[in-house]
Amino acid sequence: MKHDLVVFVPGILGSRLTRDGRDVWNQSRRTLFQLRNPKRALAEMALPPGIGDERPDARHALVPEGLLKSPDSLPGLLSCLGYPDVRAALGDLAEGQYVPFAYDWRLSNRLTAADLKDRIAHELARWTERVDTYYPDRPDDPKVILVCHSMGGLIGRYYLECLGGRETARTLVTLGTPHKGAAKAVRFLTGHGVGPVVGDGPLRGAALGAAGRVVNEALRGLALTLPSVAQLLPVYDAVLVPGKSRRRALNDRRHPVPDLPTGHVEDAFAFHDEFEDAREANRRTDTDGRLPYRVHCLGGMAHPTVHGVVLSPDGPRFTTGLDDGRPWSGDGTVPRDSAFAGWALDYEDDGGWNGYRHADMAGGGSVGHQLSVIREGRRARDMLAGDEEFGLTVPECALAGKPFEVVATGQGLAERNLRAVLRREGASSGTPVPFAPDGAGGVRVELEGGPGTWVLEVVSERPRMVCREVVTLLDT
């Protein structure tokens, strides 16, 4: 493993998309969140309707230029704290041994997986010619270690099983990958992405009023043109119908989700079916049915996370639990069950579980710790989250200049002196604010700040832990 080529595949938002040197998404979201003609603000990001697995023409094409370095968000779907120090977190790698794979995250994951295949073929050939310089006593020829954050894991596994990449791979590591999809994609594609979650569970959010409706409409219009977002839809049974005891899948035509296009649902299930069919075909040729590469999936398990949609006469409601028979959690974006690579691993204890939120899952500290466990050959359960982890409920969007609420849940929080602060570009919005009991067994705090993208940082004592998330404050 030490002499292998390491390829890092980010998720949505993880690559800077540019035109003529301009960061198009960064400019678009700034205009959007200032609520100045939101639809026009996102026009440059949109793809032609029905583009499917095709490449966009020059008018719609954007150039991926490196990994995202600073915090960003696609409110209602996901956020990312950026990847400023991934190479350092991966350890003592030789010159040329680390390859960041930037890509146009708007496009179909099938197309991106084909691009990944071409890139790996080129980079592995280059590294194979140079590896003797750094590892003359290596036991075999180098292969590829794929480290994938979020949607990047769907791209990586499709490349491995559907495009023949399994012969080049030593290891696949997925960080917060929605192997079975994420119900937040339903919210996003139906125009309910930002604002309070109405339904079961403790998710609370700031009432955004007309500003929230404008932003949701603009984001939905963009999302409906992006094949990648459709391929994030959940393929597990995520639909609850009042009066029915059994959960349904999104492709159950007897109970469609309002405003969710049938074609988007069909593509999501087809994308996952292609992978499962390829995996089963490949399994028949594997020795003892074992994969020729190792899989490590690392996910979050401490935070309230949208798991499904409840159909009701008043419109869809989004729930953090699918029944009362078990606790439901995740990383705030991807449910725990979905972050588990059941196609490769037998038991949940084979996964590595932690208290990181989705935005911070690929941060330097988390990647370094998790991969060190893998390198040392320790058991996956050594990465399990403990009782000291706490969950956070954080609104993706709130109104600038008005208080919004953050709720923490966990054991013994009243004695751990939780404090919260908003930070932006190295500066904070003020002194850290202590949490206070919320009357429901948790602790809460109210914060406010000016318009823009902020990083919420929550620190606890005994033991010291830091949890981070991205919050967007709308300029009203």
Task: Identify the notable features of this structure and list them briefly.
476 residues; alpha/beta; Rossmann fold; six-stranded parallel sheet; six-stranded mixed sheet; 22% strand
Structure, explained:
The chain has 476 residues and is an alpha/beta fold. 25% of the residues lie in helices and 22% in strands. It is built from eleven helices and 24 strands. The strands form six sheets. It has a six-stranded parallel sheet, sandwiched between helices. Strands 16, 18, 19, 20, 23 and 24 form a six-stranded mixed sheet that branches. Strand 8, helix 5 and strand 9 form a beta-alpha-beta unit. It is globular and about 60 Å long. About 2% of the residues have low confidence.
Summarize the structure.
The protein has 476 residues and is an alpha/beta fold. The protein has eleven helices and 24 strands. It has helices at residues 24-33, 38-41, 86-89, 109-134, 152-162, 184-189, 209-223, 227-230, 262-283, 336-339, 364-375; strands spanning 5-9, 15-19, 22-23, 63-67, 72-74, 78-80, 98-100, 144-149, 169-175, 239-240, 294-300, 308-310, 317-319, 352-354, 391-393, 397-399, 404-409, 419-424, 427-428, 433-434, 436-437, 443-447, 452-460, 465-474.
